[in-house]
Write a structure and sequence with these properties.
76 residues, Alpha-Beta Plaits, 4-stranded antiparallel sheet, 2 helices, globular, Transcriptional regulator, Dimeric_a/b-barrel, Tscrpt_reg_AsnC/Lrp_C
């Protein structure tokens, strides 16, 4: 399995909407609100790096109300 931590910057006031949508996704293990440069921190798991990249680009980076992301990947 490949695990990644994703920092997410949302549109102003959209943190709860984005967090709720992420929590519904099977690959998302948990989501927490943060304060500072990013609004959310999510822990995501996929079977390999390619599936992780695909999931992030299709379901997180391109999601409605997501402005930007920063992903820290850990192979395990």
């Amino acid at each position: 399995m490949t695990v990644a931590y994703v920092l997410i910057k949302c549109d102003l006031g959209a943190e709860e909407d984005v967090a709720g949508a992420l929590k519904e996704m099977e690959e998302v293990l948990w989501v927490d609100q943060t304060y500072g440069a990013y609004d959310l921190l999510a822990k995501v798991e996929a079977s390999n790096v390619e599936k992780l990249k695909e999931f992030l680009s299709r379901n997180v980076q391109g999601a409605d109300k997501v402005r930007s992301t920063l992903t820290v990947n850990r192979r395990g």
